[in-house]
Amino acid sequence: METSVSQGSPAPDPAAVVDEFLRLVMIPDPQSASRFTAPDIRIRFTGNRPMKAPGDTSAFNAKRYAWVKKKIERTETVAGGTPEETVVYSLGTLYGAWPDGTAFEGNRYVDRYVVRHGLIVQMDVWNDSAEWLLVRAGLAVL
Questions:
Q1: Burial of 21 (0-12, 13-18, 19+ CB in 10 A)
Q2: I need a surface site. Which of 17, 87, 104, 137 has the fewest CB within 10 A?
Q3: Quick one: what percent of the chain has pLDDT higher than 90?
Q4: What number is the average pLDDT over the span 7-16?
Q5: Dmax (CA) of the chain
Q6: How far apart are CA 120 and CA 20, in angstroms?
Q7: What is the pLDDT of residues 68-101, one digit of tens each?
Q8: CA–CA separation, 103 vs 136, rounded Å?
Q9: What are phi and psi of 52, to 5 degrees?
C-alpha cells in the first residue's frame, strides 16, 4: 500500500490505512506500522496514556499481556470525511493471554483514528482490560 500521495494521485482509502496499520502493529512490527503514521502522531492509549509512536503501544502491551491480538469486527469511516482529514473507527474484541498465561477473549475495544492525507495523525484507544484486571484482582465483579 502506498502511504504518500504524489501530485494528482488519490489519497489511500483511510479504512485500508487503519486496517494495514493494525495488521502490522499486531505482528508486532511497530517499525513497519510507522509507515502509516505522521511523524508527529498523537496517541492516547488506554487509561489516557500519551504515547508518541506505535512502538510505545507495543511496549505497553508487552508488559500488560503475555500476548494480545485484535479480532476486528468492523472498520467504520465516518461520513463527511475528505482526503485532507477523515475519522475511522476500528471495533472488535481482544484475545490473548495475561502475563500468567491465562487465556482470554471477548475483551471489547474501540480505536478512533484521524487520517490526514493518507497518514494516521491521531489514535485514541479504549478497551475493557482495566476492568478485567480489577476482576482478576478481586476488586470488582462482572
A1: buried
A2: 137
A3: 89
A4: 79
A5: 58
A6: 11
A7: 999 999 999 999 999 899 999 999 999 999 999 9
A8: 12
A9: -115, -10
Q: Which long-range contacts (CB under 8 A, 24 or more apart) does 1-5 make?
A: 2/118, 3/35, 3/36, 3/118, 3/119, 4/118, 5/83, 5/117, 5/118
What does the pLDDT read at residue 1? 46
Which three cell numbers mark 2? 502506498
Would you call the peptide bond into 28 cis, given omega within 30 degrees of 0 as the criterion?
yes
Q: What is the predicted pLDDT for the residue at 10?
A: 73
Quote the strand ranges of the chain, DSSP E: 37-45, 49-51, 67-77, 86-97, 103-116, 119-127
Q: In this structure, what C-alpha cell is assigned to residue 114?
A: 484521524
What strand order describes the sheet that includes 67-77?
A: 49-51, 37-45, 119-127, 103-116, 86-97, 67-77
Q: Where are the alpha helices (DSSP H) in the chain?
A: 14-26, 30-33, 54-64, 129-136
Which pLDDT score, from 0 to 100, does residue 142 have?
77
Nearest-angstrom CA–CA distance, 105 and 111: 17
pTM of the model: 0.89
- What the block records as the C-alpha cell of 136 is 482478576
What is the CATH architecture assignment of 14-136?
A: Roll (3.10)
